[in-house]
Design goal:
The chain contains 13 helices and no strands. α2 packs across α8, α3 packs parallel to α5 and α4 runs antiparallel to α5. By secondary structure, the protein is mainly α. It has one domain: ABC transporter involved in vitamin B12 uptake, BtuC (Orthogonal Bundle), CATH 1.10.3470.
Length: 329
């Protein structure tokens, strides 16, 4: 199987668009080019980029997980309940991540174990997990977390405004990139996206791989829930509501095919930065919240249509060249 090319055609389009948005916003939007603004922007990037890492692998296999924001919210609610119940944060945080892995395992069991459509399964667990978050915490918020934990969640690197948690993101991104682009597991993930049946005949354990991808996705979504809770110093059942749309839009914008089998992690990270930079620039320019949602929806459409249209144009050009009569010299 041909390996995915890092920084392919669509990836470069996204990177050029990212540079254009940053350059244009730096000139046109007051305050965009400041170090303080970029510190806040990177904090906004964190939960989206974290969840986008495993989501990339899931979508490349031809599946999807729409429950990630609800996993984040339920994790936040459980963290709040456990902390208010007297457990120390050193125990609460790993329990929250473990909960996310269990929730991901439920998705994996239905999708990989029972062979049910991932779209239907994760729409169902999206509602189920969010409902459980309200059962756990109700409409109240827990906000008396230790200052040491909440302060460290947003603490910048010395002498900069860059949050130190970006180092955690970069380390995880490097790990996911190595797995996807430099290991047999990654080659199997691409093979499953192109044809699950062919991958199975080739000796790849399709069900097992998909199951563990959902477990990892749940755990990382829970980690994003931990960060979200500590960043805002507030555990609420509605934390992260609607974030799944932003994550999926960023992944597809980064060049991952919704049909599976194609995409790169560098492209996805560029897509996350492009979407977040554009939304934050518009927000800084006092654009209404409903229009920001329209921007996300529009980019989601572009991310689906764009790469496929470009591929169709390239395929048509190849057919024309192949059918063109040879020139006699």
């Amino acid at each position: 199987m041909r390996k995915a090319n890092l920084l392919g055609g669509w990836d470069l389009v996204v990177i050029v668009a990212l540079v254009a948005v940053i350059a244009g916003s730096s000139v046109l939007v007051e305050g965009f080019a400041t170090a303080r603004f970029w510190g806040f922007l990177l904090l906004d990037v964190m939960p989206i980029a974290l969840i986008a890492l495993p989501m990339t692998l899931v979508i490349i296999t031809g599946e999807i997980d729409l429950s990630v924001a609800s996993v984040l919210g339920l994790t936040s609610a459980v963290i709040g309940q456990l902390w208010s119940g007297g457990l120390p944060m050193a125990a609460v945080v790993p329990l929250g991540v473990l909960l996310g892995a269990v929730l991901g395992a439920v998705n994996g069991l239905f999708v990989a174990g029972f062979g049910l459509p991932s779209l239907a399964v994760t729409i169902g667990t999206l509602a189920l997990y969010r409902g459980l978050a309200y059962v756990v915490l109700g409409d109240r918020a827990v906000a008396d977390f230790p200052l040491g934990w909440t302060g460290n969640a947003i603490k910048p690197l010395p002498g900069t405004t860059v949050p130190w948690v970006v180092l955690v993101l970069l380390a995880l991104a490097a790990a996911f990139a190595v797995v996807l682009h430099a290991t047999p597991i990654g080659r199997g993930i691409y093979a499953m996206g192109n044809s699950a049946e062919a991958a199975a005949f080739g000796g790849i354990s399709v069900a097992k791989t998909k199951f563990w991808l959902y477990v990892v996705t749940g755990a990382v979504a829970a980690l994003a829930g931990v960060f979200w809770t500590l960043r805002y110093a507030s555990a609420r059942a509605d934390n992260g509501a609607g974030l799944e749309l932003t994550v999926v839009a960023a992944v597809l914008l980064g060049g991952v095919s919704i049909f599976g089998g194609r995409g790169t992690l560098p492209g996805v990270l560029a897509g996350v930065l492009l979407l977040t930079s554009l939304r934050n620039a518009l927000q800084l320019a006092d654009v209404a919240a409903d229009r920001l949602t329209m921007v996300t929806g529009g980019l989601l459409i572009v991310s689906v249509v764009g790469p496929n249209a470009a591929a169709a144009i390239r395929a048509r050009a190849r057919r024309r060249r192949a059918s063109a009569p040879a020139t006699v010299h």
